[in-house]
Amino acid sequence: MEKAAGSPSVGGSYPQKNAEILSSQYGINLFLAGLLLTFAWAVHAVGISKSHLLSYLITLMLIQLLWMLWYLCRSCTQRRLIRDKDTHAGARWLKCGITLFAVITLILDSFKIGYYIDFSNCLSPTEGIFPVTHAVHTILQVYFLWCHAKDIIQSFKTLERFGVIHSVFTNLLLWTNGVLTESKHQLNEHKERLITLGFGNITIVLDDHAPQCNCTTTTLCSIFSQGIYYLYPFNIEYHILASTMLYVLWKNIGRKVEHHQQHKTPFKFHGITVGMIFGLVVLTSTIAIVVVYLIQIGRSKIKSELALTMFYLHAIFVLALMCTAGIVALLIYRREDRSLDNSKNPARKLDAELLVGTAAGSWLLSWGSILAIICAQAHPKYTWYNLPYSVLVIIEKYIQNLFIIESIHREQEKVNDDIKTLRIVTVSQGSTLSLTPSYKEIYNGRAAPDSGEVPCLFKGSIRGRENDDGGGGAKEETSQDKSSVMHSASDFSFYSRNSVTNNKRRILKNIAAFLFLCNLSLWIPPAFGCRPEYDNGLEEIVFGFEPWIIVVNLAMPFSIFYRMHSAASLFEVNCKT
Which of 14 and 262 is assigned the larger pLDDT? Predict the structure, then answer.
C-alpha cells in the first residue's frame, strides 16, 4: 500500500525531469548556433555578414516577445488565483538595477537608430530593424521581470520551461553580441596605443566594420558612433542580469515551496556611515584615475608609462584595503556560533556559483600576468607593479567570495521568544505588581523611565509587603533583595552581550557597504576602456599578440560581470546583516 501510494508522485516527476532536460538541451543548441554565427561574423567568414547575425537575433527576440505576451495574458485571466512565490528571487533592488540598465540600453538603441538613419544608404535594413525590435523587447522584458520574477509556475510547465529557457539564452546571445562588438572597438584602440609604448614590431591591422559610405550629418554620426561604445557596458550588464533572473524563474518551475514567514530586510543607511565614506572616497578616486588614464594613455611613451604606474598603485592600495576588510569580517564570523541555512534556494545557489565561476576570468588574467613577469627577459619599470597587483587580485577575490557566500548562507539571528517576553515581577507595597521593562525593550533602548527614577530592574532593594510580624517581613525583604540582585546581574550580562552583538553587526554592515562601493569602483575601469591587460605590452611579448588578445577577450567579460555581481550580492548582505 505504501509503495502504491508513493508511486504516482514518483512517476509524475519523470515527465517534468525530462522536460527540464529537453528544454535545457534546446537552449544550449540555440546558444551554440548563435555563438558560431557570431564568431563567423567576427572573423569575416565567407558568406556570413552582420545582417545574418542580426536576423537570427531578431527572430529569437520576436519568439520571446510572443511567449511573454502569451504568459502575461494568461496571468491576467488568472490574477485572482493565489500563486506560490519565491521570496528570495527578484529582489526589489535587483529590479531597480535592471531597470536602470534597461533605460540606458534604450538610449543605446536610439543612438543605433540615429546611426542607421545617417548611414542608411549603405547599411542593411536589418541594422535598422534590430534596435527597434531590441527596444520593444527590452521594455516588455523589464515589465515581465517586475511582475513575474518571483513566480513559481505550476501550470503548462513543459511549455513554460521551453519559453523561459529560450528567453535565458536569447539574453545570453545578446550579451555575447554586445561583448564582441565592444571588445572589437577596444582592440582597435589597443593596437594604436601599443606603438606609443615602443612595441613597433606588432603589426597593426584594424578590424573595421565601418560603413563604406559617407555620413549625411558628420557631427551627429560622430556623436552616435562614439556614444554607442560608452553605453555598451550598461547594455552588457542588463542582458546578463536578465538572463540570471530568468534562469531562477526556470529553476523554480514546478518547485514545491515550504510556506514560512519571510522577514523583510530593507536597506538602511543608519550605522554604515564609516563604510560609506571610505567607499565613496575610493569611488571618487577611481573615477579620477580612469579619466586621467584614458587621457594620458597613448599620448606618448612617458605618459603611457605614468598612466599605467598610477593605475597599478591605486589598484594595489584599494585591493589591500578590501583584503583587510574581508579578513576582519571572516574573523568576526569565526567568533560567532551561528548555523547555516542549507534549505533549497535556486537564487542563492546561482549567486554562489556565479561568484566562483566568473572570478575564474580574473584569476586567468592574473596568472597570465604573473607568468609573463617571471618569464620575460626585459622588464620596463612599470611592469613590476603588475606583480603585486595580480597577486592581490587573486587573494582579494578568494577572501571576498568566502565572505559573501558565508553571509548569504547564514541564518538571520533570532532572539529567543522566552527572553523577549520575560518580565521580572516584583511585589511592591500594597500587593501591587510592578513590571520591569522587558528584555526586548532594554535591547531596543526603549526602557528609559519618564519619571527620572531608576527602573526597578536595577534597584538595589525591593520593598516587601508590610507585615505586622517584623521578623517575617525582614526575611521576606532579604529574600527579595537577593532575588533582585541576581536578576540585575543577569540583566547586565544580557545587555552587555547584546551590546557586543550590535557592535559586531555594525562592523559587518560597514564592511559590506565599503566592499559594495569598492566593487562598483573596480567595475568602472575595465567597463569603460581602462584595461592594463591590453596596454601593458609585456604579456603580448611572452605569449604572442593574438593568443594573449584571445585570452583577454574571453576572460575580461567575466571579470567585469564579477564586479557587478559582487556589488549586488554585497548589497543583499548589507540588508540581511
Answer: 14
pLDDT in tens, 183-234: 777 777 766 666 665 655 555 555 555 666 667 666 777 778 778 878 888 8
DSSP string over 270-300: TT-HHHHHHHHHHHHHHHHHHHHHHHHTTT-
Determine the Cα–Cα distance for residues 225 and 214; give it in Å rounded to an integer: 13
Handedness of CA 213, 215, 45, 554 (dihedral sign): positive
Please state the rounded mean pLDDT for residues 250-267: 62
Contact 435, 455 (CB under 8 A): no
Separation between Cα atoms, residue 329 and residue 306, nearest integer Å = 35
Measured CA to CA in angstroms, residue 513 lies from 88, 246, 413, 500, 576 at distances of 21, 27, 20, 20, 12
Q: H-helix or E-strand containing 145?
A: helix 126-148
Instruction: Give me 156's grid cell.
Output: 503548462
4, 13, 230, 344, 485 from 10: Cα distances, Å = 10, 5, 53, 19, 62
d(CA 447, CA 190): 65
- Residue 150 CB-density burial (10 A; 0-12 exposed, 13-18 middle, 19+ buried): buried
Regarding pTM above 0.85, the answer is no
C-alpha 260, offset from chain centre: 26
Which amino acid does the sequence have at 164?
Answer: V
φ, ψ (nearest 5 deg) of residue 154 = -125, 0
Please report, rounded to a whole number, the percentage of residues in the chain having pLDDT higher than 70: 70
CA 131 to each of CA 116, 359, 498: distance values in angstroms, whole numbers, following the listed order: 9, 32, 56
286 and 204 in contact (C-beta within 8 Å)?
Answer: no
Cα separation, 407 vs 330, whole angstroms: 10
Instruction: List Cα–Cα distances, 388 to 316, 532, 558, in angstroms.
Output: 7, 14, 21
Report the C-alpha gap between 258 and 285 in whole angstroms.
Answer: 47
Spatial separation of the C-alpha atoms in residues 100 and 138, rounded to whole Å = 12
Kindly state the cell numbers that stand for 275. Answer: 563604510
CA distance 124 to 337: 64
Residues in the chain: 577
Whether the Cβ atoms of residue 386 and residue 369 lie closer than 8 Å to each other: yes
How open is the CA angle 505-506-512, to the nearest 5 degrees?
90
Segment 44-54 shows an average pLDDT of: 86
Distance (Å, rounded) from C-alpha 368 to C-alpha 469?
91
pLDDT tens digits, 392-449? 999 999 999 999 988 887 765 554 444 444 444 434 444 444 444 444 444 444 444 4
Name residue 299's amino acid.
R
Task: Inform me whether the pLDDT recorded for 488 exceeds 50.
Answer: yes
Q: Are 498 and 445 in contact (CB under 8 A)?
A: no
